[in-house]
Amino acid sequence: MADKKIGNFEAIALILTVIVNHVVLNLPKNIIASSSSSSIINVLFISIIAVLIGYFVCKLLERFPKLDILDIANFLGGKWLKILTGILFLGYFLFTVSVVLRSFSEGLKIIFFPRSPIAAIMILFLITIIITNKIGFQAIIRSNFFMMPIFIFTILFIFFANVGNFTVQRMLPLLGNGAFTTFFSGLSNLFAFGGFAYLYFLPPYLKDDNGLKKITFASIITSGICLLFSVATLLFLSPNSVITEEVFPLYLASRNIEFGRFFQRLDAVFLLIWIISLTAYLSISFSFATRVFQKLLNFEYTKWYTALFCLFIFGFALIPKNMYELIFVENVIYQYVVLILIFGISLALLVFANIKYNLLEKKKGAVSIDKASI
Amino acid sequence: MQLLFGIDVGDTERIKVTFQFTMPNSSGENNPGETAPSVIDTVEAACIESAVNLVNTFVSKEVNLSHCKIVVFSEEIAKQGISKEIYSLMNKVEVRPDTNIIISTSTAEEYITSVKPSLENLVAKFYEILPRSSEYTGYTSDIHLIDFFNKLESMSEEPIAILR
Question: Residue B103 in contact with residue B164, Cβ under 8 Å?
Fold first, then answer.
């Protein structure tokens, strides 16, 4: 385990990779489609809610240091609950990788490779995932950590480089489709903080046992800032009808950037950076999927079945027959999967585990929960 | 390389599209001072997509609009309404949002055939610099496709384009 330990900044970068990649894909577009001109207020609102949930999760995990959600499920309901939770998270990671892979590949196909088969583009990414996972978890995490400032820089740069093209009045009326849509139904946009899924698995990997709280807050606040800048860029730049129909809305924004006659068409550079970012994200999610599988079946090694998982992802990613089905899976199903699993089931599991812990504490006095006892 | 295209009201179809291409390797370095040659083709079609497909059937290279600098509309078609064409252009990934929009008082085809860059050998460079004269003169404006489209969609603004 020692060689798998990660520092606080690496952990923050790991959680941020989720938001960065979804921002590049369709996340801001979905928020603008649902909240219209109140998107900025909605992002601020859900960011505050996410910080509160983050605080709550940290409090709930305080009782279970160095344990991930599978260990906590084992403590709460025994082996069967651990297996059930593990299957749900395994499904979540594989589903996310499949959907993101297909979505990004479709975008690349539309922009650069209109005559190339989608499978060929996806296979290139899958080969990269297999190679990175063969190299190891530490290599993925460190590469992601080194590249993360550049990924975030692209989002901020697109905002500031486009300031001259902005129509700030597009954020009016402030409450968009109404207070109910902004604050109540807009709560569903919490799915933007899907990075919480990694938070539940982080404790055993952390070098600093007390770092979880710092990691949680830093990652949520930075995620919120990235989301805010990307939503603001799109909202101020083009009418909603344009944004909601684009494949990569942020790519559209990057196409508007030019500095005189000499620095034009910077979008290709952005796309290259986002391809690296996507590879890091897919590798991390895939690595977590294999780790969950390994933990469920008590395998000693993960490397031999990574290729099999890749084949599964490849097959699953090809299920949507067209862009319409893919958009439905990405926008609707993914949203509900995150809300139900990450913010519903997982939180409920942590709450019940804490209740059980308190009951045991009352019955037997002080109990020590560690891996050996579970 | 495709430089610009013009859209007129068609005689037999809805629109008449005129394309101007530069000849490959026609940078004019062999005869300094001489304007690089370009090729002009005109087709009639129901929409821009069909026109591009039609041109692709008889030119040896695939038409790519990535380097298109200007889209010229004739005044006649502009008066009829060009929102369909603007939507088509916006939906094409190849067409860049900073492409300039020009409304020609003559037909677009006449405009394209009559443009003779006098102080510039490269036609592509001429088309790129032409709208930028708004930086030092008040007689013209630098209107991009994205600005035109945004104003077309806006409830509080009207789209404007360069009139030539």
Answer: yes
Question: What's this model's pTM, rounded to 2 decimal places?
Answer: 0.86
| Interchain pair A256, B93: CB under 8 A | no
Out of B91, B98, B156, closest to residue A256 by CB: B98
Task: Tell me the shortest Cα–Cα distance from B154 to chain A, in angstroms.
Answer: 7
Cα–Cα distance measured from residue A248 to residue A227, given in angstroms and rounded to the nearest whole number:
15
Amino acid at A369: I
Residue A203 tokens read as 């404790």
Q: Which one of A245, A256, A261 has the shortest CB-CB distance to B97?
A: A256
Cα(A164)–Cα(A256) distance, rounded to whole angstroms? 10
pLDDT reported for residue A1: 47
Other Cβ atoms less than 10 A from the Cβ of A213: the count is 15
List the domains of chain B with CATH numbers. Answer: 2-26+34-163 (3.30.420)
CB A29 within 8 A of CB A327: no
The interaxial angle of helices B48-56 and B83-91, nearest 10 deg, is 60
Say if B27 is an interface residue toward chain A (CB within 8 Å): no
The CATH number that domain A11-364 falls under is 1.20.1740.10
Q: How confident is the model at residue A372 (pLDDT cuts 50, 70, 90)?
A: very low
Q: Inspect the interface and report whether the beta carbons of B98 and A261 lie closer than 8 Å.
A: no
Query: Could you state, in order of their start, the residue ranges of all structural domains in chain A?
Result: 11-364
Q: Among residues 59-118 of chain B, which lie with CB inside 8 Å of chain A?
A: 90-91, 93, 96-98
DSSP element (H, E) containing A298: none
Tokens of A215: 């990691």
B48: nearest Cα among B60, B56, B39? B56
Distance from CA of B138 to the nearest CA of A (A): 19
Alpha-carbon distance A166 to nearest alpha carbon in chain B (angstroms): 10
The CB density around residue B64, as the number of other CB atoms within 10 Å, is 11
Q: Where are the alpha helices (DSSP H) in B12-122?
A: 48-56, 75-80, 83-91, 108-114
| ipTM given for this complex | 0.77
Q: Which two tokens stand for residue A268?
A: 């290709």
